[in-house]
Design goal:
There is one protein chain. Helix 9 runs antiparallel to helix 10 and helix 10 crosses helix 11. A five-stranded parallel β-sheet has the order 3-2-4-1-5. A five-stranded mixed β-sheet has the order 6-7-10-8-9. The longest helix has 13 residues. The termini are far apart. The protein contains eleven helices and ten strands. The chain is α/β, with parallel strands linked by helices. It has three domains: 109 residues, Tetrapyrrole methylase, N-terminal domain (Cobalt-precorrin-4 Transmethylase, domain 1, 3-Layer(aba) Sandwich); 106 residues, Tetrapyrrole methylase, C-terminal domain (Methyltransferase, Cobalt-precorrin-4 Transmethylase, Domain 2); 45 residues. Bound molecules: S-adenosylmethionine. S-adenosylmethionine binds next to helix 5, strand 7 and strand 10. S-adenosylmethionine (SAM) binds next to helix 5, strand 7 and strand 10.
Length: 277
Amino acid sequence: MPTLYVVPTPIGNLEDITLRALRVLREVRLIAAEDTRTSRVLLQHYEIDTPMTSYHEHNKLSKLDAIFAALAGGDVALISDAGTPGISDPGYELIQAALAAGIRVEALPGASAAITALVASGLDTTGGFVFLGFPPRKPNELRAFLTEVSAEPRTLILYESPYRLVDTLRLAQEILGDRPACVAREVTKLHEEYTRAPLSEILAYYESHTPRGEVVLLIAGAPPTEPDVWDEARLLAALRDRLEDGERLKDAAKALAAESGWDRKTIYALGIQEKTD
Ligand code: SAM
């Protein structure tokens, strides 16, 4: 059965491609590439001369028929300029259409800037993370976007243009607070640079060092909110109210433990004391 292979390519260092990816790119009958000129450099480096056709943001729908026609006669590989197709890159529509048409889709594991940057950032990965892709460009939309994720407890990952990085950092600090963050720049390339610091320090750094190249912005999730623990006077007042209303101490202690942040047994003991005083 013909297969559509989704093949990740390097995000900077040409060595970051798997043996299987190279074999698949050599064996398929056609490679659908986001930019054939960019991908030619990679293919020439590995002496792969498989025919290529373009598949990019502006022809991703009109090109479906041609790619399906190729799939009727054999396997096709989809690649983007760098990293994993379908991740802030064209791919989704083709993969959807192929699956809907009953075509086998196989994705190969490989490079993606988000995951590489996340791991090296040192930010929390144990509680999961949220990949947000490119944030909106317009300031009011960016503000709404950041406000929407401000309570998200997991690490945030964003792709951003170096030209908008400073403005995004400024708004992120204002809306999210001065959280730990990281800018991963030119990952796997000659001028790779990780800036790991609170947002305010990263902002100050990039206000004086114009960011160049490609960047991933990673921001720690919202800090856990402190549970609201009542003081003793408030707890005793609430306990007395309930007991005076005829509630059993056992039930009152259970209900107040859920509301007050106090331990049920401690509330029970306070209730006994109240009764004996
Ligand atoms: N599909 C790609 C992937 O899997 O990572 C992402 C493609 S998206 C069009 C390009 C964005 O990815 C860049 O603007 C940047 O935010 C990020 N990116 C790609 N390569 C990068 C690199 N070497 N260093 C830092 N960020 C990179």
